[in-house]
Amino acid sequence: MAEWQTRRPQKPLLARVCGFESHSGHAVTLDDVSTTITSHTLVVFPGQGSVAVASGDGWRHRPEWWIVENVSSLTGVDVAHLLLTAPNEEVIRTDNAQLATFTLSLMGWHAWRDHEEPPAAFAGHSLGEFSALVAAGVLSLEDGARLVAARGRAMAQAALAQPGTMVALMGPDETAMAALENEAHLYIANVNGPGQIVVSGTVDAVADLLERHKELGWRRASALNVGGAFHSPLMASAQASVDAALDDVTFGDTSALVGANVDGHWYGGGAAWRERLSSQLTSTVHFDRMIQAAPEHLERVVEMPPSGTLTGLIKRIRTFSQLEGFSPTSGATA
Fold first, then answer.
1. Which domain holds residue 271?
2. Could you tell me the pLDDT band of residue 38, with boundaries at 50, 70 and 90?
3. I want to staple 322 with a disulfide (CB 3.0 to 4.6 A). Which of 137, 220, 287, 300 is the partner?
4. Does residue 24 form part of some domain?
5. Mean predicted confidence (pLDDT) in 233-257
6. Among candidate residues 249, 235, 225, 223, the one with its CA nearest the CA of residue 283
7. In a domain, 45, yes or no
């Protein structure tokens, strides 16, 4: 087994969330990557929770539809069906949702980039990190599609083997984070912004958290309609399949920066992304930290489709001059 495939033991919950951890490669600044990029734009890519029924309606007659056909051919999945005619229960299944979201986002990227200067930076949330790496040129579209399909299948199988779910927590008091430390079978999956986290856990542990969240110092709790306890140790059975898929792809260089979910740092391209994506499967998504750490010169953020979720999070984390969502019918919208 390669060194990057060796799983590290979980640190205590607070240490995982509040402390930077060491990963292969090194964080960089814009000057480390390129002195020729003049753009002030960050392009961001959403995770699987943003996709909905018939999300592809606005794209079916556009030139970017070739991406749907390409991804379908590469993965053996009828992506057109997922984007146009599949019912909600089929669309939101994690393997389908990941591939559908990836395809939508890349269609948006190809449409947007034809009329814009190359962005200085890319980032994504969970699945969106894979889309961001394709857009940045670190992964090819072909490798990205195969990798997302393999990841989705492995996560769906892991969720069946170890059932779990997720809950969003908002409005903590000064003791709320520490109180979670003492709760068994709960793991912080996402840190999405000031006072907002997502927790993964076993079905029983999350049900108990929903009942007791105010007692633990959280003002609000909202159950998420997901099929598993993502970004937690309950996904560990998917690790071997994900790592095998990662071992089959090539990681290239890029002239831009890409934000990393696992530690909130910003990096160039290269093979160190293999370990970051491997670790991402069972680690916290530090979206809040990543946006805060984005280069200071960035002024504009554009979210690729299906857009809306990340722009809503980002405006609560940091102020940018322009915050936009891109769609095929209206272009970039505030």
1. 3-161+231-333
2. confident
3. 300
4. yes
5. 98
6. 235
7. yes
- Of 126, 131, 200, 279, which one is the catalytic site residue? 126
Strands 186-193 and 196-202, sheet pairing = antiparallel
Active site residue 126: yes
280: nearest Cα among 144, 126, 87, 117: 126
- pTM recorded for the entire structure: 0.89
| pLDDT confidence of residue 231 | 98
135: CB partners within 8 A, 6+ apart: 43, 45, 106, 109, 113, 122, 304
- What confidence tens digit (pLDDT) does each residue in 58-117 have? 999 999 999 999 999 999 999 999 999 999 999 999 999 999 999 999 999 999 999 999
* Contact assessment for residue 141 and residue 253, using Cβ atoms and an 8 Å cutoff: no
Catalytic member of 231, 232, 278, 283:
231
Q: How many domains does the chain have?
A: 1
Active site residue 327: no
Task: Return the bridge partners of 223, or none.
Answer: 167
CB 121 within 8 A of CB 266: yes
- Checking if the pLDDT of 188 tops 70, the result is yes
Residue 269 has pLDDT above 80, yes or no: yes
User: Is the pLDDT at 45 greater than 60, yes or no?
Assistant: yes
What tokens appear for 128 in the block? 């969106």
| CATH code for the domain of 310 | 3.40.366.10
Residue 297: inside a domain, yes or no? yes
Tokens representing 32 are: 């480390």
- The answer to the question of residue 157 being in a domain is yes
HSE (side-chain half, CA atoms, 13 Å) at 307? 25
pLDDT band at 1 (very low <50, low <70, confident <90, very high): very low
222 vs 195: CA distance, rounded Å: 14
Using DSSP's 3-state secondary structure scheme, residue 94 falls into helix
Compute the distance between CA of residue 68 and CA of residue 47 in angstroms, rounded to an integer: 18
